[in-house]
Design brief:
The complex is a heterodimer. By secondary structure, chain A is α+β, with helices and mostly antiparallel strands. Chain A folds into two domains: about 80 residues, Beta-grasp domain (Ubiquitin-like (UB roll)), CATH 3.10.20; about 70 residues, Orthogonal Bundle (DNA polymerase, domain 1), CATH 1.10.150.120. Chain A has a five-stranded mixed β-sheet, sandwiched between helices. Chain B is of the alpha+beta class. Among the domains of chain B are: about 150 residues, 2-Layer Sandwich (Aldehyde Oxidoreductase, domain 4), CATH 3.30.365; about 180 residues, Aldehyde Oxidoreductase, domain 4 (2-Layer Sandwich). Chain B has 19 helices and 30 strands. In chain B, helix 14 packs parallel to helix 15. The longest helix of chain B has 28 residues. The chains are: A alpha+beta, B alpha+beta.
């Protein structure tokens, strides 16, 4: 058998203490998906170019495909599964729905996690800052316009601004 | 079908939250690779390192001996497969070629061509096992582009391929699989009489759909002989037919469960991994999960053709285009079946040109077998023709949009096939572009240019089937078979809701497996909102008829006297009697069985779609980098059911087209190895590369659909290639006839350097 010895790793994932066994060659993405059943982070390229696997690790946005699972020891990780609360969706998640900022939806978890990391450090980004920050996440369906608007809408809502979601007023008809 | 002058809709045209939305923003939606069956093995594919070679020997014994390996398969594990062509909706495939593309038997025809596959207890073990498989090849010279492949002395991919044309089959084998021809009038005479003649050659490279989700599936071949396949596919039923055909099984022995699908754009119509996973599962007696790496997606799925196009056009000084002679040669990839036919049909569609002769060639090359890519075949044709039209506009001094309006096709104009167009909306699109804020804002400054272009896609109808059942709480379950790539659960549900007069949120759409609904063709050809929406309309009418019958019984009145309007049942026999849809639903199970409606359609009234687009850009003269300053998409939707998702289709197609224009290409070395098979090197547009893409929805209702729907998924990718090229011409004074128009090529052209 060519399997290498497994290591025990302890981390905090979405607010819960978690222990898992992994091989040194396994990426954090592989362990999240195949070992822990957290399939919200997606594999689009497995080399850090598409951002579909984004998670927040100790307040840093990382591509989980480029992090070894053993590196997660002692860290605090937030995945897409940890963004909503039992009380409801995060403003970003609501804004993505209201702005129709997803089509196939496979890049959406990465975008929402990346956008959360942006708003965590800059609650009032301008359009260029949003586009610059999200340039590490690829979406092939939307042309990004509605994603940018969704992030603007969520930022405005989180700041409690009255103009929240002005860009999508038309969306409220139904 | 008669449409009211100003239809008043309650649901259509609104923007409800999509029904599957919450699952998709919380990470719960299950895509192809998210399914893990209990006890699964992991499959991996051994692929050819050569672009063209004969397989002399495969020895899998060392791989089979590796601990953890449970099965190894090669083409020898296939049953005997007949030489038969299978219709896949937007494309067709010969079964033996389809099977050979999934596991090569005697020859490999492109780098990445599968030759064997392994299933093991762990994906890393499966990968290690691949390295233990010995394959002996006789390497052959590859043919890597369409013009080289057409030369009489070119190495042959298929020794028995003889060109098919109207004259029958050619005597001598070649790489030209098919020669198509479309003609009208007398092109030679019209060109001889033309006051202006423009002639140019164009080249485009192979490009990929670039969906973010790589192909993935899980297969389990049960002890009772039943094969169940979970897969990310644009069509569960066409996938079932392909899998059953390749494995020579009756279709009902195969159940395909479509997962959520992370983008397709045509590339997830063909199957790749599914029968391989099935064969591995049969051998191992356990489920097998397979997913591709990004490099495998680039090297071994179905990009769209590289092309060579030559056009000679004649016009009068007043701007009337009188004649076009065109030759289109498209790379099919390793097996016949490019989109050149559609390219020929779309080439001249925006215009009324009385004399044309179009020759199309389908040519095999040592690159992956092409698949459909959003309006397959049309973008390269538009890249060529819309630059020719731009040049005629320049030579005649006519505004390029006005020249398009002057020559526009309309109802009755003959199509390339000779049949007349039905009601179409090209004139309306051009007029809307002329009136747009964008076009009426002057573009100033050095190194800047504005370009416009139009494009056409015919759209398709095909077959759709839904089932709807009323719940006692006044909701309706809507069972669909069209996989939902971009919000079609909702656009279909909205048409049922509109017909029933209930809110969209009261409909619960579900996409189900091939055991659980009638046959549905692929989600492709911009057909799903059109045809599956039509089926939902029929199902709603069926529900209404059955509600009327039930209520007639309850009220003791003749059924002909019962009316259903705005979700209320009434009868002319007794003005006192009235029952809302909700009241009906609440008592339904007390007065009889559940009311279930069906809609199963193959609509003939397909409405073609046009788009006209405006691009402003700026070129950095030192680096050749292009910045898109402003971009507007005008498109005829027929009827926009959910305008936000219509805008999304318009923006997404334009973004892909801009990427195709400026950056994207399959870049090969002389041995047929793709050198940029990653998302770092094959650069698709990022959020930073694009401006907000403005949208103008035009609604020229399609008379062939109860709500006027045409289909909006594809045509937006057609005009960008030429819109960008025409803008670049205005910015630099250079006509760019080769794609991509990347910084290197722009600098070569603007600085007068020799090109590659």
């Amino acid at each position: 058998m060519t399997t290498t010895h497994k290591r025990l790793v302890s981390a905090e994932i979405n607010g819960e203490p978690v222990e898992f066994l992994c091989e040194p060659r396994q990426s954090l993405l592989e362990v999240l998906r195949e070992v822990l059943g957290l399939t919200g982070a997606k594999e689009g390229c497995n080399n850090g170019n598409c951002g579909a696997c984004c998670v927040i690790m100790d307040d840093r946005l990382v591509n989980s495909c480029c992090v070894l699972a053993v590196e997660a020891e002692g860290t605090r990780i937030t995945t897409i599964e940890g963004i909503a609360t039992p009380q409801g969706l995060h403003p970003l998640q609501r804004a993505f729905l209201e702005e129709a900022a997803l089509q196939c939806g496979v890049c959406t978890p990465g975008f929402i996690v990346a956008a959360k990391a942006l708003l965590d450090r800059n609650p009032d980004p301008d359009e260029h800052q949003i586009r610059y920050w999200l340039a590490g996440n690829l979406c092939r369906c939307t042309g990004y316009d509605k994603i940018v608007k969704a992030v603007q809408r969520a930022a405005a809502e989180m700041a409690g601004r009255a103009e929240a979601g002005a860009a999508a007023e038309t969306g409220a008809r139904a | 079908m008669v449409l009211a002058e100003k239809p008043q809709f309650k649901v259509i045209g609104t923007r409800p939250i999509r029904h599957d939305g919450v699952d998709k923003v919380t990470g719960r939606a299950q895509y192809g690779a998210d399914v893990t069956l209990p006890g699964t093995l992991y499959g991996k594919v051994l692929r050819s390192p050569h672009a063209h070679a004969r397989i002399l020997r495969i020895d899998t014994s060392k791989a089979e001996a590796l601990p953890g390996v449970k099965a190894v398969v090669t083409a020898r594990d296939y049953p005997e497969i007949p030489d038969k062509v299978e219709d896949l909706g937007e494309t067709a495939a010969n079964l033996r070629e389809l099977a050979d593309n999934l596991l090569a038997s005697t020859k490999v025809l492109y780098r990445g061509h599968p030759v064997a596959a392994v299933a093991a207890t762990d994906p890393h073990v499966a990968e290690e096992a691949l390295k233990l498989i010995e394959v002996e090849y006789e390497v052959l010279p590859p043919v890597l582009n369409v013009r080289d492949a057409m030369r009489p002395d070119a190495p042959l991919l298929h020794e028995n391929l003889r060109t098919k044309s109207l004259a029958g089959r050619a005597e001598k084998p070649s790489n030209i699989a098919q020669h198509l021809q479309f003609k009208l009038g007398n092109v030679e005479q019209a060109l001889a009489e033309a006051e202006i003649v423009v002639e140019r050659e164009f080249e485009t490279k192979m490009v990929h759909q670039g969906y973010i989700e790589p192909h993935a599936c899980s297969a389990f071949w049960n002890q009772d002989g039943r094969l169940i396949v979970y897969t990310s596919t644009q069509g569960a039923f066409p996938a079932r037919e392909q899998i059953a055909s390749v494995l020579q099984l009756p279709v009902a022995q195969v159940k395909v469960v479509p997962t959520e699908i992370g983008g397709g754009f045509g590339g997830k119509i063909p199957i790749y991994l599914e029968p391989v996973a099935a064969l591995l599962s049969k051998k191992a007696g356990r489920p097998v999960k397979m997913s591709m790496s990004r490099t495998e997606v680039f090297e071994a799925t179905g990009p769209t053709s590289g092309t060579y196009i030559k056009i000679k056009a004649g016009a009068r000084k007043d701007g009337t285009i009188t004649a076009v002679q065109a030759m289109l040669a498209y790379e099919a990839g390793a097996y016949p079946g490019s989109s050149v036919g559609a390219g020929c049909l779309c080439l001249l569609a925006p215009y009324n040109i009385p004399n044309f002769l179009i020759d199309g060639y389908d040519v095999v090359v040592n690159k992956p077998k092409t698949a459909a890519y959003r309006a397959p075949g049309a973008p390269p044709a538009s890249f060529a023709m819309e630059q020719i039209v731009d040049e005629i506009a320049e030579k005649t001094g006519i505004d390029p949009l006005k020249l398009r309006l002057q020559n526009s096709s309309r109802e009755g104009t003959p199509m390339a096939t000779g049949a007349p167009f039905k009601r179409i909306g090209h004139e309306e699109c051009v007029q809307a572009a002329l009136n747009s804020p964008h076009y009426n804002t002057p573009l100033e400054g050095p190194n800047r240019g504005r370009g416009v272009a139009s494009g056409y896609w015919m759209n398709v109808g095909l077959k759709s089937s839904v089932t709807a059942s009323i719940n006692p709480d006044g909701t309706v379950n809507l069972i669909e078979g069209s996989t939902d790539i971009g919000g079609t659960r909702t656009s279909i549900a909205m048409q049922l809701a509109e017909t029933l007069g209930i809110p969209a949120e009261k409909v619960r759409p579900a996409v189900v497996d091939t055991d659980s609904v009638g046959y549905n063709d692929v989600t492709g050809g911009s057909r799903t909102t059109f045809a599956s929406g039509y089926a939902a309309y029929e199902a709603a009418k069926d529900l209404i008829a059955k509600m009327k019958a039930r209520v007639a019984e309850i009220w003791g009145v003749p059924v002909e006297t019962v009316e259903y309007q705005d979700a209320v049942l009434t009868t002319s026999a007794d003005p006192e009697k009235r029952m809302t849809f909700e009241q009906f639903a609440a008592q339904m199970l007390k007065t009889g069985p559940a009311i279930v409606g069906t809609g199963s359609v193959q609509p003939r009234g397909v409405g073609g779609a046009f788009s006209t687009q405006i691009c402003d850009l700026e070129v950095d003269p030192e680096t050749g980098k292009v910045t898109i300053l402003r971009y507007t998409v005008v498109q005829d939707a027929g009827r926009a059911i959910h305008p936000a998702y219509v805008e999304g289709q318009m923006q997404g197609g334009a973004a892909q087209g801009i990427g195709w224009a400026l950056n994207e290409e399959y870049f090969y070395d002389e041995n047929g190895r793709m050198l940029n098979s990653s998302l770092l090197d094959y650069r698709v547009p990022t959020a930073l590369d694009l401006p907000n893409i403005e949208t103008i929805i035009v609604e020229v209702p399609n008379p062939g659909h109860p709500y006027g729907v045409r289909g909006v998924g594809e045509v937006s990718i057609v005009p960008p290639l030429a819109a960008v090229a025409n803008a670049l011409y205005r910015a630099t004074g250079v006509r760019f006839t080769k794609l991509p128009m990347n910084p290197a090529r722009i600098l070569e052209a603007t600085l007068g350097l020799p090109s590659e």
